[in-house]
Write a structure and sequence with these properties.
Largest sheet: 5 strands, antiparallel
Protein name: Protein TonB
Oligomer: single chain
Organism: Pseudidiomarina tainanensis
Strand content: 25-35%
């Protein structure tokens, strides 16, 4: 009888302890589910450092100044016309010699200024002489006018005769001169001579 009573008391005590333990677990579980965990959470965020842009002003370098200015280009004193188009296939030259004057030379009346050639045109080689391979020269005399033009051309000497006379005089008529000036006034110059040479190159 005593053993049964002790067993019942022990069973009751164990049952009560189990209920108490279960109640404690239930209460602790509700708190764990309802209350958020205490503490602090640290979030690490990487922030890029601010970039500083440095602006540099670039100024173009000034080019070095030339030590000396470029020389002036000389003006041409001669003007050549092309030869006869029918004379294609031949290479020739018509040389023009320095002007001379029969009326006392170039040194006369130079107080204000002597006449000077400005434009000299190359003579056209005659077609017949070019085809036959004839060479020669012509000395032409003429007058330089007050305007610097040429008038009254004439043949002084020609070799061979009558072959290049016309071509030489036509070329001389296209010459241009700075007229002679005496006492501030332009004057005519007579007896000016010019030698034109006709030669086939090659």
């Amino acid at each position: 009888m005593k053993r049964v009573l002790l067993a019942l008391i022990a069973a009751f005590a164990i049952t009560a302890g189990l209920f108490y333990l279960m109640q404690s677990l239930i209460v602790g579980g509700e708190g764990a589910m309802s209350e958020p965990p205490r503490g602090s959470v640290l979030d690490f965020v990487r922030v890029k450092p601010e970039e500083v842009v440095q602006q540099k002003e670039r100024k173009p370098q000034r080019p070095p100044e030339p030590e000396q200015p470029p020389p002036d280009m000389p003006q041409p004193q001669m003007q050549n016309e092309s030869a006869d188009t029918d004379a294609a296939g031949f290479d020739f030259s018509a040389d023009i010699q320095t002007d001379t004057s029969l009326s006392g030379g170039v040194g006369l009346d130079t107080s204000d200024g002597e006449y000077l050639p400005i434009v000299k045109v190359q003579a056209v080689y005659p077609r017949r002489a070019l085809q036959r391979g004839i060479e020669g020269y012509v000395v032409v005399g003429f007058t330089v006018t007050k305007q610097g033009t040429v008038r009254d051309p004439y043949v002084i000497e020609a070799q061979p005769e009558s072959i290049f006379d016309q071509a030489a005089m036509e070329a001389v008529l296209k010459f241009k001169y700075k007229p002679r000036v005496v006492n501030g006034e332009p004057v005519e110059v007579e007896g000016v001579q010019n030698r034109l040479t006709f030669a086939i190159d090659g």
